[in-house]
Amino acid sequence: MAEDAERPLLELGYWLSCEEHDPRALVRNAARAEAAGFGLAGISDHFHPWVPEQGQSPFVWSVLGGIAGATERLRVGTGVTAPLIRVHPAIVAQAAATAAVMLDGRFFLGVGTGERLNEQVTGAHWPRPDVRREMLEEAVGVIRRLWDGGPVDHRGAHYTVEHAQLFTRPPQPPPIVVAGSSKKSAAMAGRIGDGFFAVAPSARHVEVFEGAGGRGKPRLAQIHVCWAPTEDEARRTASRWWPNAALRGAALTELAHPKDMAQVLELARPEDIVRKIALGPDPQRHLDLVASFATAGFDQVLVHQIGPDQEGFLRFAEQELLPALGGR
Amino acid sequence: MSPRAAWRLEQLGFGETYNYVGSKMDWIGECLPFEGTLADRPRLSTLAETDVPTCELHETVAQVRGRLGGWELALVVTGPARVVVGLVRAEALGLEDARQIATVMQEGPSTYRPHVTAAELSPKLEKRPVPWVVVTTLSGRLLGVARPEAVHAAAKADRG
User: Fold this and answer.
1) What is the pTM of this model?
2) Which CATH number does the domain B31-159 belong to among 3.40.30.10, 3.40.220.10, 1.10.760.10, 3.10.580.10?
């Protein structure tokens, strides 16, 4: 998140996909993105990849420690952490406070209501979306109280915290960006968040976020692209590494294991996978996808390059995308 | 009822009698002066900020970027006679210089008429929050943009 007064109208960021890259590659890619001119990055927080083919899913908090040591200016945040079931909000508060200290003011905590794919691994019940929203609201309150530094005792509808106090804390608590893919969650983001995070270019959701208290706060979006020397190659790479782009709604949030996703995806048509992905070497395609989000009101657009060729994309971004947007 | 009233006034001997076909709301909606017991209630006609930066469809991002100044709300895209056709978010003005406004415009924004009172609008905005309220005359001409917080404050003052 950009928090300074000189915030640009629109900023392009880089996405670190934990689902596809091993932790050492993620740290290298973060450093390379900073060198290419990116000032902002997001990193996924998963227990599993979406599909087995993606092959990775390191623990995000360890990777952030590596990124903190390998970068100097890059602002990094999770996109997004679900502080609900797999990890208790008190532990997320501690992990995020440590990351904020390690990154020295360059960290933001992205939070959302999660997916069963990642959150059911402890065997706990996977609640319905409205309950998860309630849980997230309570969890954010717990996290903020712990960041304030005092001893916290909390007995809420979903969480209990007793005699808890964080001793490693940054001078300023990091911003909390709340993810939303519905009007209800966008309104909650406006009410409790320091920013909004989305994956669809919905102007209405941005309006709801702003109207509910989010005006003037950052609005982050993740987009998916696949740069490759040819469009055909990009299409093949995207279809192999990110078939989950074909899924929507409950198919993303209710399945338990990557192999379940893969089975459902056997029914997907190739055109469903690449429909919303900017493919190939033409910068205009990539900029048009960015423009659809800027038009809707997103001011920080994080670009996820699908597949192994991160270096090819970073060169392309350095030479074509960032200069077209005034070096932002 | 105004045709009947006009006819009756003529019968009573008033020489110059006009029937304003567009109705009283149309008159107020064009921001024309009116009197009466409800004339002093806060309405969008007075709550809207009128010094709103605008742009046109054929212009480019580079041409209009400088108009934002300190304005933190959206630019209003207008056509002939300042008729509102859309909005452009500030974020879109961070795109490439040569990109046309027509490609980054949010089409068909909700608009409100100037006769709407703060007391009427405030609960609607509570139910369906928006970051700004575009105010146009009945003919679609841009009058200005009102901030929701100004509407809520005026409604509260109106209630006493």
Assistant:
1) 0.92
2) 3.10.580.10
